[in-house]
What we know:
By secondary structure, the protein is of the alpha+beta class.
Amino acid sequence: MPFPFSHVSDLLQRLEDNRLARSGVRTNASLIYEWFRAHRALLARDDHASAPLLSALLPEKRTDRVYFIREKKLQTIIGRALGLGRSRIAELGRWTNPAAGVDLAECVEGILRQTPNPGDNPVTVEEIDQLLHRIAAACRFSSPAVRGSAGNQPADQELSIGSLYQRVSARDAKWLTRLILKNYEPLVLDLRVVCSGYHPLLPAILKVQDDLAVAGRILDSLKRGDAATETDLAEHLKPALGVKVGRQTWLKGRSIKHCLSMLQGRFSCEEKMDGEYCQIHIDLSKGHNCIQIFSKSGKDSTKDRFALHDSIRKSLQLGQPSCPLKQSCILEGELVVYSDKDHKVLDFHKIRKHVSRSGSFLGTDQDSPPHPWEHLMIVYYDVLMVDQESLLAVQHSKRFQRLKDLITLIPGRSSIVKREVLDCTRSSARSDLRRAFAKCITARGEGLVLKADDPYFDFATQQRPYRCCAIKLKKESIGHFGEIGDFAVVGARFDPTKARTYTNIRNLKWTHFYLGCLENKEEVQRFGKQPQFVVTNVVELNAVQLASFVSAVNPESVLPEDNTAIRLRIEPGIDGGKRPSLIFPTPPVFDLRCFSFDKEGNTGFWSPRFPTVAKIHTDRTYHDTISFSELQDMANREREMPPPDDSQELLRWIAALEQSDRCKGMNVPSQSTTISSSPTSAGAHTPQSPRCSLLPGNQAARQARSPQPQPQKPAPKPATRTPLAAHPPGSRPLAEVAPSLLAGAAKIKEGAAQIKEGRKRLLELGPSSHVEEAERSKIRRRSPSRGAYASFSSSLSPDTAKQPNTAKQPIAAGQADATGMLNSSRDTVDGLVQCGASLIRRVGTAAAGDLGVVDDGLDGGREKVPSGHVLVSNDTDNDTNGSGHTNGLGNGNSNKHDNNNSSANKPNKQPPTCRLLGTACKIQDYSFLLAPCIADYPWVTDDMLRGHGVTQFLRDPREWANSAAADHPNRHGHNQTQSNKPTPQTKIILVDRRRVHATKTFLRSVEAARLHNPRTGKREWVPVYDWHVLGALCEEERKMGNIGGASRQSAMGRLEVGNAAGVWRRFWVGLA
C-alpha cells in the first residue's frame, strides 16, 4: 500500500519544531519511535515496500544515486512548474540574499502558502522514489546498477519534478525540496535510531549489507515469510558478493593514554596508509570479470579503478592453478600510488591522475601527466569472507593470518600492511606504543591504526565499550601538534543551508571564509604596496567561533566588484569553483591547524589539508600572517625525510609524546588571543614545536634543537610562530592548564608531620637573643579536598599575642644556620621543594603550638595577621614600597614603626646576593614582572626572589614599555639603593599557571603593552614561567654545594634561562 509523503513531512516538521522549541523539548529518538508506533499497522502490511520510505528518511545514504540538481537548477524547475511571474520568481530567489535568512525550501513554502495547491491528489513516497531513481539513472555519476536500470524513459525527467510541486502542500513542498537536495540540515536523523525504529534487525543487516535498497528487500522478504527462523536470520547476517559490507566504527585517539584506555589485551598496531579505501569482491564464477571494487562511500568504482585490477589478479593468482581461492572472497585494502623510480609510496594527490571519477579525471588541469614509473598499488589489511565462509565473527589475529595465506606479495604492486602486536596488560605497553608512534612520525607516516583482537562485528546486545572498533592515531590529533600559524581571511560567502545550523546568530552574512597568504609580503611591509593574496583554503566556523567573530571582529566588507584594497588570486580548484560574495579590505586573522599538506585539484600549490580554525585573533593584522612562500617551504619541509641515522629525532618525539600524556586533552581550541605563539620555531621535524614539521623555522634554531627561545633576541616574523604549547615539547598550553593537585592527601599529611618534626628540631637548637618576635612559616600545599591552597602555620601562644609590637630584627647567624639545617633536612624536602629551601627563614621564639591548616581563600596571597603578631625580617633594613607599607604581613602599627626607624637605623651594606651561590647566581641579573596574583606573595617576593639576590621587580608591563623603565625598573616593596651589578637585561614574567583566568587576564595586559626592543624596534617577546621555578632553582643550587670543577660549570648552565635542558624548561608557560 502506498505511503503518503505527508506522513514523512509530519515527522520531519515535528523534529524541526522540537529543535527550535524553548521549552518542553523532547529527544529526537522519542519522537521517531513514537512516529513509527503510530504508523506500525501501515508499515507491517505485506504490500508495503521498505526501501522507498527508508530512502525518504535517509536520503544521504543513497550514494548510488546522483541527481545532478542543485539549488539554482531546482529553483528554475519549480518556477516553471508553478507558472510564477517575475515578482514571484524574485521572491522565490530570496534564498540568495543573506539578509533574508531563508533557504530555497522555505521560499517554496512561502510561495505555496500564498497560492496553495488543491489537495485532492496527495503525493506518495513510492512516487517520489521512482521519479528520483529515473533521474539518477540518467546521470553518469550514479552507480552502474542504477544506470543499468534506466530502460526507455522520457528525455527530460526533470519535468516530472514540476508535476510533484503542483500537487504537494506548502509544508510538504519544503521537505520535498530538501529531499531532492539530499540535505535536511540542520535537522539530522540518527541512522541507528531510524533503523531500529523501523525494524529491530535493520541495524544489524545494514552492518553486513550496507545498501538501503538491498536491506529493504531483505526486510520485505522476512515480512512476507511465515516466520523468520534463526537460520534465515543468520543467512542475512553474512556478507554477500556484490553488496558492500559496512565498515567498523572508527574512533580518533587523542593521546597514547587515551588509546590504551579504549583497548584491552593484545592489539594490532598497523601503519595507516594515505590512500583511498577499497573493498574488493572476488567472484570466480564470473570468469575474467570477477573483480568488483567498492569505494568508502559505497559506490561501485570497479571501472574507475581499472588500473588496479592487474595488481589484484597477480596478488591472488587469479586464473592460475596455484590460486588459493575456490569460489570467492572479500578483502579490504588501501589504494596508493607507487614510484618505481623513488621506491616509495607517493603523496595522496597523485592518485587523481591514475583514478577517474565516472570516467572523468577531475582536478588534474595543473598536474603533470602520469609518469611511466608511477602505478597503482594495493595494500591489504583485512579479509571478511573466504569461499562463502564469513569471517566477521573471527578474531582479528586469525583474520590477519588468513589474509597472509591468501596474498602473494609483489614489490610495488601488492603488499600487506606493516604491523606489530602489542599487549595492554604489559607494564611497558605505553612506552611500546609511544615508540612505535614516534617511529611512524619520523618515517613521515600518516599515523597508526590500532585494532584490538576482536571480531569485525559483534551482534551481541550487550558488549563492552569500544569493542570491534578501529582507532586512528595521528600526531595532529594530540594537543596542539597540528597548529601551523596565522592566515588572513580575505573574503567570505553565504550558504543559506549552512546558515540554518547557526540558530542563535542574528544578521548572519557569512558561513564560509576564504583564507589567503600574502604573495608580496616583503613589499607590503617595506614599501606599503597593495597586498596580493593567494587563496589557499575555505573554512567554516563552529557556532561559538562564529558568534565571537560576529560580535568581536565583524570586519568591513565590500562586493568583489567594489574591491580596490587587496588583490586576490583564486585558482579554479578552490571551493569547487565557488567565489566569495564579499571581500574584506582589512583581512582579519585566523590561527589554523591541519592534518598535513596536500595539493588540491586544479591549484598547483601546497595547502593545509583538512584545515580547522584554532583561534580568532583580534589584535593581529594580515602583516603578521604566513606568506605564500613560507607556506610552501613549510609543506616541503614536512615531506623531507630525516637522515637514516638520525636517532635524536626519534628520541625527541618519544619525549614529546610522553609529555603530552601528562596533559589533559582539549576538545575545543581556546579562542583567547593572548595565548601567543613562540617566535622561534625549533625547526622542521623536531618535536620542540609539536607541529614543528609544519612550521618555517629558523635554521640556526633547527641546528641548535633548542626548545625555548632566547628571551632577548629579536623576534622573527609572527608568521613563523609556533603555538604556545610548542615550547618546550609537550608543555601544557595555557588554555589547557587546569588546577592540578601538587600532592595527594597522604603526601599532605606526611608533609605536615615532617614540618612539625623539623620545627621541633629547630626549636631545640635554641632561639637567638636578637629575635624577639616571630612570623608564621607557611608552606604552600594543595588541598585535595577543596582544590584550593592551604597554609600550614604555627600558632603563637596567648602570651605572645599580648606583647607589644616591636621592630623587625635580623636573624642571628646561629639561627640562620639552624634554618639552613632545617632547609637541607631530607625530612622536609617534600614539604619545601615547591617553595624553596629558604622558605622557613623566620623562626619564632614563642612556644610553638600544633600545626594548623588555614585556607587562604585565594585572595591574592596576602594573609591577615592578628594584632600582636610581629614580623621578623632576615634583613637589616626595613624596606617599604611607595605607599609606605611594608611588603610583609604586618599590621598598620608595625608598618608605622618600621617607617619611623628605617632611615635612622639602616646600616650601609653591600647589595644582597644569592644565599647559596653568591654573585655567581645569574638570577639576580634578570628583570622580573610578577602577575598580580603572586606579586603580593611574601614567600615569592621576600623569600624566594630575595633569596636569589633579586631586590626589584615590576607589577605593570607598561613600565617595561618605556625604555628608561626597562633599564631601571620600579622597585615595589624595596628601597631603591645603588648597586654595582649590571642592569638586568633578561626579562622574565612569573605567573601562577594554576589560576588560569587570572593568568589570561594578566597576559592580555602584557599583549596590550606591545613591548618593543629599544635597540631593534621590533616586537619583543618575553618568556613566561610558573613561579614554582624559583623553588626548583633553590634545590639545584643546594645540590651544587657538593660538586666542583667541570661538573659545577655544567650544573651552572642548567640554571640559565636559555638552557634547553635546564631547570626553567619544566615550568615553561609561553611567550607574551
